[in-house]
Protein 1
Amino acid sequence: MKIIFHQTHHTIADFDNIFKYLQEQIKKSEDALHVFPELFLTGYPLQDLCIQKPFFEKYEALLKKVEKLSSKISSDSTYLFGGLSYEYNKNKIPQSIKNVVFKLSNKGLEKVYTKQLLPNYDIFDEQKYFTPGNESCVLKINDKNIGVLICEDMWSSSFHKKDPVQLLAEHTNKQQLDFIVNMSASPYSLGKNTKRLQRAQEISSLFQCPFLYINKVGAEDEILFDGKSFICDGEKIHKQAKSFEQETLNFNLDDFQYSFKINETKNESNTWEDLFQSRIQKQKDKTHSLIPWSDDDCAEVIKALSLGFQDYAKKCGFSNFTIALSGGMDSALVLSIMRLALKEGQYLEAIYMPSIHSSPLSYDLSISLCENLGIPLKSLPIKFLHSTTKNLFGQSFSQPFDGLTDENIQSRLRGTLLYTRSNQINSMVVNTSNKSELAVGYSTQYGDSVGAISLLGDIFKSEVYRLAEYINQKHNGLIPKEIITRPPTAELRPDQRDTDSLPEYKVLDAILDGILSYRYTQKDLIKLGFEEAEVQKVFDLYKRTEYKRYQFCPILKISSKSFGFGYRVPISKSSTFYNK
Amino acid sequence: MKIIFHQTHHTIADFDNIFKYLQEQIKKSEDALHVFPELFLTGYPLQDLCIQKPFFEKYEALLKKVEKLSSKISSDSTYLFGGLSYEYNKNKIPQSIKNVVFKLSNKGLEKVYTKQLLPNYDIFDEQKYFTPGNESCVLKINDKNIGVLICEDMWSSSFHKKDPVQLLAEHTNKQQLDFIVNMSASPYSLGKNTKRLQRAQEISSLFQCPFLYINKVGAEDEILFDGKSFICDGEKIHKQAKSFEQETLNFNLDDFQYSFKINETKNESNTWEDLFQSRIQKQKDKTHSLIPWSDDDCAEVIKALSLGFQDYAKKCGFSNFTIALSGGMDSALVLSIMRLALKEGQYLEAIYMPSIHSSPLSYDLSISLCENLGIPLKSLPIKFLHSTTKNLFGQSFSQPFDGLTDENIQSRLRGTLLYTRSNQINSMVVNTSNKSELAVGYSTQYGDSVGAISLLGDIFKSEVYRLAEYINQKHNGLIPKEIITRPPTAELRPDQRDTDSLPEYKVLDAILDGILSYRYTQKDLIKLGFEEAEVQKVFDLYKRTEYKRYQFCPILKISSKSFGFGYRVPISKSSTFYNK
């Protein structure tokens, strides 16, 4: 049986182009079973869009147009794609919305399956909008019996009372299926592919038939979809599509040699346990630190970030980019990743904004980096604006300032200049904060925390270094070595070092990962060997900086727990419970 | 039967004070049935806190302490309060969390009921965290049969498959209950009280017994709880607690004359229909505009906002406040509301930051307002900083700027100075944007849109005027009349008027309410009589300014659809579906 996987890449609600894609595939008239991702017709995640009348009215119009394509389809082709199915009340207000699979053939458009498990943890809000289905689906196409699932349906966990895989097994008596297809819009996180493959192997073994997994590609604000659609049969992964790229996978199921390894052990997956995962591990020297990233991990993350900012820019209509370069590690990494992913016709520039505390080294390193990358570096000194502001306060309030006030003003003046430049050339400002900074609030609100989107907001500082080293290894020392080796500093006061007020990053990041896994109390971390004073300091910083994270820009999500839409913590609360 | 309602006001997770309150009540040993709000023991909404180990470990410790209070309770007293009930897996990770009612008496602490309906629309995420119950509860206390419900349980709607009120009726055969008590943490919105009372009257009539409603008080970031606990019996509301204030309501149920009006009509409530409500109404002149606020509405909203910023300040540890005053309506209203709600020991100041485009009138009006309010006004001219920045760009880029870039720089310099002042005196900056501005993006990101919390972000501009007039009527023209009557302007270029780029506010606000109700397309609004060009303009502005709302501060929520946590719309999307 010939099957074509459409690992597509569309913008949410881009109905015209979504229709055009489908229409073109049908025009090609390749006789096959064509399979598309979950919610192909609308995009995902839609959130409130799906309850806005302008949205669902236009969507219903699309559905009608799609239905008419039926007459153009040969009797040997079938199209399976995801979409929404609405029921309305008498006032044309949605009463129920279902996440379904449509089957389009020369017999018409037919709704064949409704997603049973609606994920509602972390970034997922599906139970807010959708009504679950309650029936297994076995399609008969060209004499083949095909089990159909949508994304979360393949996972079993204590989040959900039922298990659609088990239900499908009961429904089919395990023997009768020729293959199972899971149509997904499954968000990326590091390690997710391995998890998907394992679960697919389990299900394939359980049913003794191939398991086909199709996933979409693209970035929707902070959420990345990696594609990596695949066909597995028992233990064997026969074919896998690229990550983060649109691709059409064309194959004949009969060509594959089936190789089973029966293994009926079914593990719980997507549980709280899973979501609470921590990446702290005991090292050989008996200290605990983050599991380091492999080269493959680094390559994958860089690909994810590249798609992330490019998609956001395209969907928001930007082709110019302005980055504030400090001579430090974070901005150098952001600039390098962006430069490597830059497309024809796009313009990328760096702005260096020295204050009286900026060292000449920072400027030299910025120049070297921009030379290596071949991008323009502009200098906008803030010294005079800084002293003018100080004078203004001295005059107006007879109350000059220093300390933190004086540090923050420098950062905010930079934010102001950066956005003035952004206005001037209609460029997108990409934020340069990392996850460690965000977690302890080591940044100035409306200062260095500004930006349209954050590339490193889900990447700890020690991982920032790891990525820089990986890039240098792959690209011949693109990033000047001294940027990586110099001690990190915000340069907001004389001789400032990050370590003046923070533990060294290796320790900080491990403690933070512990906190953000939600699995550790102060006592637990101290028991692992972290110093009590350091643990307490990190918890204290974390708990009183929620307000900074609240107003932060979207963060490209690459881990299972990112500060972004899925991280929901009240700002105002008594936070004494975090104490030892 | 003597009953005491504890309409309490605590901070989320403030376990020590929550325990102290309970302990003190028990010490007073007033023999009665003591009733507390939903999740009294933890606070609400908790979001991710309830899955963080430091939280649930300390909460379990609290539960143990509460249990021990049992020995101090007389045989004639019973305490009913809300709390959480956890089940853990072998790794001590929550497997299931239930929102329950505890009964504390001299017999011990007992979990008596689990909330059946978990709201999951708009700001509510309960299905993300909690497992629903599936049993009705009738408690026998002092020979009385008491039906128990938690908050959402009293509402029936198409959101939920079941109806706990109906189930309770079946369970009790409608006749046997002496009264029903609903323990709530029900967020405020304008008009919510009326809705609650109506539903209570329905249920009371259905069961032919009194219906007791207890609600908490307080502001949790953007979400306000108004209290207004009450006792109703059929049609009659016997007693109602204050709004937005902690109160103990002490009453004997036998004292009330029961007055029924049997009415078994049960309306659906809390439906999409309900949430999609629009406040546009046809006026006598046949145009459509917002239903105007009554004096009572104004009083209620001002009380809500006052509690909102005061609670946020208290919980975040601020007693100083800095407001940027422009001489316009919004900042004048914010300042006035805050002044009227100011407490002893708090410090409130206004900062006026004129640019070259600021008119002398703006300064004069700012002076008059601050004199009326008796608060200090500081002036910090941005003219020199503005010209310095322009020169800097001219020098560094040989590319001077004007137009929007030149407008935004003024606003951002003000944001920078405002936060410098905030740093200097450790004051909280309260945002002064209104809902109309937010909806069309008529503000500068990191400029006038800065702030720790927004007072007017859920209030349309025409309602801002309404509140100002109400305050002037109640407080003898506190706000200089010309602030209200002068044409609104951002004063960022010569002779600028809001109406240069926006429809007049009465029209704008009606169109916006239409858009935000999610019920109207462009065509629908044009059909109501709005001008096509204006409708299109407003939709265009709305759809391309999502990114500004994303990074905005928490907004005190006073309507059923606020731009805040419950408003979930992707930034990057194809927005052509909004077009006509």
Note: The mean pLDDT of chain A is 94.
Protein 2
Amino acid sequence: MNINEIKGLIDQLSGKKIDMYRNDFLLTWEKSRAELDATFLVADILREMRNANVSPRLWHSGIAVSNFRDNSTRTRFSFASACDLLGLYVQDLDEGKSQIAHGETVRETATMISFLSEAIGIRDDMYLGEGDKYQREVAKSLDEGVATGVLPDRPTVVNLQSDIDHPTQSMADLLHLAHHFGGVDKLKGKKIAMTWAYSPSYGKPLSVPQGIIGLASRFGMNVTLAHPEGYGLIPEVVELSKKQARESGGSFSHVNSMDEAFKDADIVYPKSWAPFDVMQKRVPLLHSGDNAGLKALEQQCLANNAKFTDWECTEEKMKLTKSAGKDMPQALYMHCLPADITGVSCKAGEVADSVFDRYRDDTYREASYKPYIIAAMIFLGKRKNPAATLKALLERGMKREVL
Amino acid sequence: MNINEIKGLIDQLSGKKIDMYRNDFLLTWEKSRAELDATFLVADILREMRNANVSPRLWHSGIAVSNFRDNSTRTRFSFASACDLLGLYVQDLDEGKSQIAHGETVRETATMISFLSEAIGIRDDMYLGEGDKYQREVAKSLDEGVATGVLPDRPTVVNLQSDIDHPTQSMADLLHLAHHFGGVDKLKGKKIAMTWAYSPSYGKPLSVPQGIIGLASRFGMNVTLAHPEGYGLIPEVVELSKKQARESGGSFSHVNSMDEAFKDADIVYPKSWAPFDVMQKRVPLLHSGDNAGLKALEQQCLANNAKFTDWECTEEKMKLTKSAGKDMPQALYMHCLPADITGVSCKAGEVADSVFDRYRDDTYREASYKPYIIAAMIFLGKRKNPAATLKALLERGMKREVL
Amino acid sequence: MNINEIKGLIDQLSGKKIDMYRNDFLLTWEKSRAELDATFLVADILREMRNANVSPRLWHSGIAVSNFRDNSTRTRFSFASACDLLGLYVQDLDEGKSQIAHGETVRETATMISFLSEAIGIRDDMYLGEGDKYQREVAKSLDEGVATGVLPDRPTVVNLQSDIDHPTQSMADLLHLAHHFGGVDKLKGKKIAMTWAYSPSYGKPLSVPQGIIGLASRFGMNVTLAHPEGYGLIPEVVELSKKQARESGGSFSHVNSMDEAFKDADIVYPKSWAPFDVMQKRVPLLHSGDNAGLKALEQQCLANNAKFTDWECTEEKMKLTKSAGKDMPQALYMHCLPADITGVSCKAGEVADSVFDRYRDDTYREASYKPYIIAAMIFLGKRKNPAATLKALLERGMKREVL
């Protein structure tokens, strides 16, 4: 894309009525449709600027805090890449190495790490009912810091996965779909099957499927959620998705059959997750460090899981789907990675080897949007007039690399 | 503050006779009064430059080494923020991940990490008699590296807390006082009560109270040190503080009553620390890994501690103090954080909940000076003519952020 | 060196026929002599640019990935310093903190960490037969990522130590020799003794001695490899070194006597390593986590080691050597550090205290080349016309630091 085409995208952004400055990005359903579209646009603009060797570096100094309360590879690198692209230095808040164990409150810690910080990314997805709460507590503390004049500016909080939503994943996924189908507007009427799949592991978070149904239902898509009985998501998120689907001119169906979900789907997203009620039982056990109880729950859950090994994305099931265009005879397969691939990473898993292999590059392309989505979220939280700033960056013309 | 006012501060700096270039910042009492004042000035200048969106970035590349031999949140972030503000990339010397365990000498390690380094921050406060010694060993190694031509430049060593002093804390604290009372010169005659307070924990370092009495006694303040019998600090530091208080036109009193210390105080700093002789006994036990011995010492110390639960900064005690101005009917409460707050972080602690809460924002403001104090220490160790460099940075006018 | 002299070095570089763009640096023997010389030249140019306060910063954003599968101090700092000098932010791929344990394939991980990455440094030296293999797997994955358009650019892979070679060490070592003796061409005819030495430890990798003989044999040097019987290196590397020595007009001899190796040597490199067959036996034990087996192997190896405590670089042995010029009556002593020094780091070790002490600064100088060698490897992997880029950097004249 040349500079004039990038300017075209910025002009589109100028037209959006958004209120994202000094706001955080925690749940996609707290954002208006214009705000979601603005995020996609800024992600595309930043990527195209980089590709055209124009540095989108906003800052010559500034800290971005990463707070991973659970392991991470891809999100860690996505966050670091996004922050570095904008000029921020990532300082990890490693709670093992910090004094937080000695009894610091969230409010105090949030303030102490933010004197020269511009963004805070938080992953906290282990405990149902807590990750989102923690992120809001951090955000509230930052508001207080700004109100009392202790903090010179308000760092933007970006949800890098909570118990409820995983917006950097779902937004990257949807941007991938938009590029695949030729635009966000082309998603209207497409059928997406967000379906549970078997995995030999246990306890995968609910935030990915919740994030997908909570976001896809905003774009007039026909969303089908499928899982075995007993594998429900947070009921409020399912209800919200239904409502959103209606309002956006799409539909929402909730079924207990993978075949039914795959039938005529344009997109399939087969992925394992733990049952909601198991996740609920897990929280007090994790808190009390009851390893025997956790072990027993795991055994029970794995035994139950084992009844559903046929929930696998096989070649047969893929034949039920529709063409996703672009020389693709069947649906577009999606996954947040890593996938449990039958015969590769486990004996029986979420997806057949041959299916995964055919879509491997698509899943990698899907992941490639995440750094730019994160950068866009930070950008929009930190700039009052993002289109004007992007134009200023283009005009500055600082090269990202000397060739 | 506008650019002209910042220039005014730089002009004040020009007038100071200082010898800080290629010197380290290990103990405040090794610095002249002019050097302390210069550090305050540079900290204020860097903060005001940042606030005016002028980047004080000195370097386009360069490593800052952080060497935390004890846990840290706020100092870690302060150091990272300071270094990033000046353009340095922080590389952690994590002795767990390094080969130091395999028998490297301090001299060798100090050289190996310094080929392209500009600053080294060290926290080593666990062992009485060792932290300061280690920092000097590193500094000496760097001198040798420069003398032999192995190192192209001398990285500045900044003490991020030793067994003796905690200058980034005490200097930030004093700068906070200077801003609170309207200038460094306004500190003369103010009474500061550095007093022990009860905590249910054990073994907190002596460097904070030592740092405070060793620094406050330089500014003509009336310093009162208070603690129960048996909770003395390093005797030499107390003696030095007495001498400094006399020389600066202030006073020093040493009492065994919190009430007496609080009486008519302008500033109170109630904080727990371990008795000096306990810290001495701890060293061989820590070295030999004698966990039973450590446990026994802890039990003995906690039992002794328990006699002094009334050493708490309560509303009643605060009533004994004077007004600290600025609509503050009582003294200014200070703490290096995190504080042990009664009923919040523990059953009985250093400070009453209501007192802490009233001064919460003040303690946060106090902490906010630390990144700038650290940046100033590095700056002054690395620039022969700091005022000229600061003027050059102002004239360059590189914006910290694109708005 | 002034700017014109630096231009002279760049002109020399222009004349080299090299094919390093989009290639990795894994083994020195995969590089042509012109490519080795180009690497030395770029390392010198980058160092001289820095010394002349011209920033060689190539990038205003970009990620460098460090993947240390074994502990490291000096290489970690060298890599960080090199990347920072070129403008890259180092993000550590800490496999303990990542989801790799959950079954990600190398291909997937390599892609996920590379969307905005320019360089990947890998240390993987624990398992004979695996480190180099792993690095090639990463490299191949990156090629696929570029071929499918998933990656916008090809990050350069730099071997930070494998089971076979340690090119950042050996190249830094040879650059040190070139500077010591007055040029790469002066190495012809010099005798270098790469000899085993006793150490009370066990299991040191073979990559350093292999790297040295595999590289020194390229420059017409007379290479002598010495070790007790049973302490052989990978046979293919020894054979290759013999062949290279012949082709470059040097010689290669393989002896079982330290004295013989030291006789008339210009350079001595006495260093402990584990016997090849022990390293081979170790791999299945490490893989199966057979600690008892490892312990038994260690005991056997240490018992065998103990027969060779006289393989120590003593004053007596040094007397057998030749003058290395520059007021040096005996050979130049080299070591990759840390050395096992008799009476200092152990009772009996690789080198006598007095010998090591005399050459201490030389070994530190030797180490100082590593950051620049790494930077040169990255630079040459990322720039099609490196001489033109270096000239552009000189002309840009961006100062590394504001004085």
Note: The first helix of chain C runs from residue 3 to 14.
